[in-house]
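Crash report, auto-generated. Payload:
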Amino acid sequence: MAEKSSSGGGDLPASLEAAWGLRARPAKGPKPGLSLERIVAAAVDVASADGLAAVSMGRVAQEVGASTMSLYRYVSAKDELYVLMQEAAFGPPEPLSALESGAGWREALAEWASAQRDRLHAHLWLLRIPVGGPPATPNSLAWWEQGIQALEGSGLAEGDKTSVVLLVSNFVRSEAVLMADLAAAVVARGVSPDEVTASYERTLKRLVDPARHPGISRLLESGAMSEPDDPDYEFTFGLERLLDGVEALIRKTDGGVKSA
Amino acid sequence: MAEKSSSGGGDLPASLEAAWGLRARPAKGPKPGLSLERIVAAAVDVASADGLAAVSMGRVAQEVGASTMSLYRYVSAKDELYVLMQEAAFGPPEPLSALESGAGWREALAEWASAQRDRLHAHLWLLRIPVGGPPATPNSLAWWEQGIQALEGSGLAEGDKTSVVLLVSNFVRSEAVLMADLAAAVVARGVSPDEVTASYERTLKRLVDPARHPGISRLLESGAMSEPDDPDYEFTFGLERLLDGVEALIRKTDGGVKSA
DNA sequence: CCGTAACGCGTATGTCATACGCAGAAGGGG
DNA sequence: CCCCTTCTGCGTATGACATACGCGTTACGG
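Recovered output after restart:
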């Protein structure tokens, strides 16, 4: 229906075109004074310094020494800038050492998950960018690919590999969001992380009714809430469960019929 | 430090105060012409009809037959309205039939996850509300409590129960976000869900380089992408993995030493 | 060497959340 | 019984913000 052949083939969503560097740089007009890279880098800097909310077209333009509207010569909309920021800040994956050393899929997938988590923690504002559908940018694909490769020796069906990758990836993101929220609370009030969790525990103790919430009450009394200072605890715990679950699937698949 | 005793005890974050119905209705001024409930209900209606983005203070006020600013007599800020909307739309959990019938923790937790998912699917806009830290509203606590109760017979430590609940809950949410994004894409362009996934597959085929992305290429060739029409597939798959992982943990805990 | 396409950007528009203050309503204390 | 305090609804104003539009300018291709 709306088929419009330009240079390559079909109608890529402008932002993808930009992310893949497929923008046709015309040889006609004046020299561009800016570049996509500079703009995206400036936006990333702003986000890192003052959070995603501080990333406005005006602010980025100012940071880059141009006027607000000139940015629209490089970026079709703010959402596109978001996509590019994500792509730049996340970056491509490092090679997995577990794959090179010939370790099993479990080590490889764990390393993959940790690497992903590290990137998110380095740029917590990434988590504030609303997810816009399935991955289609270069780095997203590269990470996806690496996740599949981590499962290469597992004997899983192709579709299952992707499902597992998706599952783990979503887990990493969820856990990181939790951390980001905690970090936000820490910044919002000017206190220490411990104080935030302590304050949360106090709030809970006030709101929880032992009759209506016996389980949570038991949790509060058990003191399990106060001790674990380890910020990696929930991540490690969840990942371990997830990997166990994948292992169970692999065992099931292994022993069963080799499906076409 | 900033301790200010008002009516009850400490300084609850205004929105929580409202969610728990602890607003001190003063007996002094004129009769309020509106009510929190009416406002929240109107906001929920708007979100259900036109999406969360359509929920502006002006629009809600109009819907309720009042002026924009009058809403601020009931709600301290828009974020508070969000919290209340979430609370209202999510609602309290139904009793778990698996618990009443004496089924095991696995059935109970699966039922719990499905119930949660159903609520999210009924109000996809819920997923667009940024998560604001750990749960502290009545319904959030009730769901949390029910999750813990589902794990009652498991023999897990209190802390582990909560970690599992968090893990499953985050999974449900992640998966729902995926569905919401797909639904959004379906609405944005005017096409059918199948057409959206087909278009995605076409885009991938164009972008994926078989040399650089052998795993994804294999996935695309395997045709695994085209067949599974079942919208519940990823949910069921992920939940099964997760439950298997929890089962492994329970077996480990069961057989091992009963830690303090 | 000129037409044309791309550039930088000023201006304008429309949408929001929300601060501020006023005028009217309604209890409660004298 | 009345007035004063307190709360109500709400008009107005402010300040961000994204972004459409169009103008003057630049520089390459014919």
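Post-recovery validation: Confidence is low (pLDDT under 50) at residues 1-9 of chain B.
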